[in-house]
Structures are given as structure tokens and as C-alpha cells.
């Protein structure tokens, strides 16, 4: 398809004005006159430069990639119909049905933005991390510093790339083997639901080639309980071990998983989470979602 039409910039500006800063995880300053997000805030959320946002709105940047449009759609909390309209106005085909989706509805994004005292990450059906809040970054390290293609729980467990560090900091009380088997079982279910998804197939084939453990679990096809809720210990370099409950909440109809870590009120573990919330845990505090220079406008970014 061709270059974006002039309506693309108008849509960006209109939807940027529509989104309340608080719903995107920002605290509006007193006397703020902007009705919605500033360009700087949209740039932070989408992982793009402010200058590029300006050029898109003015129609001077005419060929945004599918990765860029997808990041903008998520940052603006668009509905599926609005996302598809943004893709078409950019001269691109919307994401195909029948593949693992990365669309996060506005309500889920607002939830992650407003529950700032709880580490929250939103994962797609193949356990790719799509969204996160600042306390998640403080607990596990800023995902924005990890290449987009590596932000996957299965890659962290079985792969050889940058995702391993964050996963290695967590210990499951039911045992790492059971935890790993549950993630493989989830991927097997995802393949059954999305047989035409070439990226999902590539993930599985790549992990089979890289990891003997993954290949063994995949080949046996042994039934395992899907990954839901459990207790974990997170080893943090600044505050030490934090014992937390990990709960996985499913978003009906969208095949998304919202993962939250909590500790009992008044416990030392809750105190450590509070400390990380204040200090940022050594990671740069940032609004929910992808951050500047995170590579989200590169070919490595996943689906829109």
C-alpha cells in the first residue's frame, strides 16, 4: 500500500487530545492547559522521538512502519476499529485475524497505569510482554532496555538472549521445572488456537533449536497445568529477596494475561515494594509501556 494520507496526522492529533493524562499514567501539573496528552508524553509511551511525532502530525513523515503505527495505537489506547482505521490511514493493512494479538484495551491500560503500588505486566497469548508499569520496571529491570523481540517469558526461560536476566531473578515455590512446563503448555495451547501465526511458529521452532529442555518438554506433550497463580521470591540487587504472590488474570475475549505481584500489607516484603516504588529500583521510572529509544520503531517490534 502507499504512503499515509493527510488524515493520519489529524487522527493522531485528535486521539492525543482525547486521552486524559491520568489514564496514561501521568500526573497532570496544576494549570495544565493541554486537553489531552502532550507530544512529549505520547512520544514516551510509543517509544518514538518528539520530532517524529510532530512530523507525523504535520504530514511531513509519510511512511510510518507497521511497528510504529502499532505502538501509537497502543499508546493512544485505541479500540480495534480505531486501530484498524489508523493502519489504513497510514497506507498499511491492519493486523490479520487468526494471529496472536497485542491489542490492549483502554480499560486494561488504565488499570495498569493507576495501580502504581502493584507491579503489573500485560502479556499476549505467547507470553510476550506488551505493557508494564513503573513498579514492574523497578522490580525486574526496565523492559525498554531489552530488545522488543526478547520481551518474552519463554525466551527468558529457555533462550540465550537478554530476557534471561529478568526471569533468572524469580524463583517459583512450586519449582522451576513445573513453572517451565506450564509455560510450554501455554505455548502449546496458543499454537492450537493460532495455527496460522508464523511468528508463534518461529518462536517455538527457535526455542526447540536453542534449548534441549524446551525441546524435551515440547516433544513429550505431557499435560501441565497452565500458568496461573503462585508464590515467588524475587531477588532484587538493591533490596534483597522479596516474597510475593504472583496472580495471573485473564482478559476475556482478548487472550491477554495481566500479571500482578503483591505482598501482604504491613509485611517487610510490602515495605521493599514501597521502597522500589519510591526509588525506582535503579531503573529509570517511566510511564506505562514502551519508552524512548526502546527500539519500538524497529523491525523487531511485534504485531500491531
From TrEMBL:
InterPro entries per record: Cro/C1-type_HTH (IPR001387), Lambda_DNA-bd_dom_sf (IPR010982), MLTR_LBD (IPR041413)
UniProt domain HTH cro/C1-type: residue ranges: 32-83
Region (Disordered): 284-304
Name of a matching Pfam family: HTH_31
Name used for this protein in its record: Helix-turn-helix transcriptional regulator
